[in-house]
Amino acid sequence: MFLTELSPLVKELTQQPIAFMGGFVSGLLKLNLNDDPIKSWLVKQGIDPTMTVPTNAPSTGPQSISID
Q1: Those residues with Cβ within 8 angstroms of residue 38's Cβ, 6 or more apart along the chain or in another chain
Q2: Are 31 and 38 in contact (CB under 8 A)?
Q3: Does this model's pTM top 0.70?
Q4: Residue 61: left (phi > 0), alpha (psi -120 to 50), or beta?
């Protein structure tokens, strides 16, 4: 059961290990893909950085909800 949940992760890791690790590390470090050093590198690689980051990303920090 646990292995079936990890199989898509392992599949992506084996198909494109450098891209996967780059995305994993940038996620851990919470890097913004629209910042200049990363954005210019992505443009040189032929990747549109505006398409990789969702525009409706939630704001950082805790959010309050009301339960009736």
Answers
A1: 26, 31, 32, 49
A2: yes
A3: no
A4: left
Rounded to whole angstroms, how far apart are CA atoms 49 and 35? 10
Confidence of residue 51 (pLDDT cuts 50, 70, 90): low
Q: Evaluate whether 42 touches 33 at the Cβ level (below 8 Å).
A: yes
Buried b vs exposed e over 34-59: b needs ≥16 C-beta within 10 Å?
eeeeebeebeeeeeebeeeeeeeeee
**pLDDT tens column, 16-50:** 777 778 778 888 888 777 777 777 777 777 777 66
